Amino acid sequence: MKRLVLLVAIAIASITVFGQKGYTDFETLADVQIKTKLAHSNSKDASSPIELSLFFQNTGTTEVVVCYELYIEDEESGEIRHSGHKEIKVKPGQKQAGKISNLAYELLGKNIDDYTNGNKRWYFKSLLVKNFATGEVIATSSKTEE
């Protein structure tokens, strides 16, 4: 029985570590950790589309809603994509991430370096956290662009 419990604990730890692989910290707002990841949609194919995956984890004790608008721009072509206004409910202790939570966005182009050298970019126009029960805004990001 002890071996089974140990095996299950190792499996859960492996899944947790693997599930967050490649994410970088963006900001923490009102006990919500926000992380991002740029990667090819097919990790084995460098010519596959690039995706931006978002990760939200509520480390607090209050159920919250993360509200955001995401923009993706290609400076050279002038093409702009917009996520629209999104609201994601995150319960205490819960994680919402990537495709499973509908938090992945296809970026423009096929070269990740375009996003590090400034030819293309993504940004939050708005990013805030509200109390789910009251609707009150409890934190607003300082890393947004107007």
What does the model show?
The protein contains 2 helices and 10 strands. With 146 residues, the protein is an alpha+beta fold. It has a single domain, classed as Immunoglobulin-like (Sandwich). Strands 1, 2, 3, 7 and 8 form a 5-stranded antiparallel β-sheet that branches. Strands 4, 5, 6, 9 and 10 form a 5-stranded antiparallel β-sheet that branches. Strand 1 (24-29) and strand 2 form a beta hairpin. The radius of gyration is 17 Å and the shape is globular. It starts with a helix and ends in a 6-residue tail after the last strand. Mean pLDDT is 87; it is low at 5-9 and 11-19.
Number of helices: 2
Strand content: 35-45%
Distance between the termini: 57 Å
Average of per-residue pLDDT values? 87
| CATH architecture descriptor | Sandwich
How many DSSP E strands? 10
Radius of gyration: 17 Å
What brief labels describe this structure?
single chain; 146 residues; alpha+beta; Immunoglobulin-like; 5-stranded antiparallel beta sheet; 2 helices; 10 strands; 15% helix; globular
Short description:
The chain has 146 residues and is of the alpha+beta class. The chain has 2 helices and 10 strands, in the order αββββββββαββ.
List the topology elements.
Layout: H1 2-19, E1 24-29, E2 32-40, E3 50-58, E4 64-74, E5 80-82, E6 86-90, E7 95-97, E8 104-106, H2 113-116, E9 120-131, E10 137-140
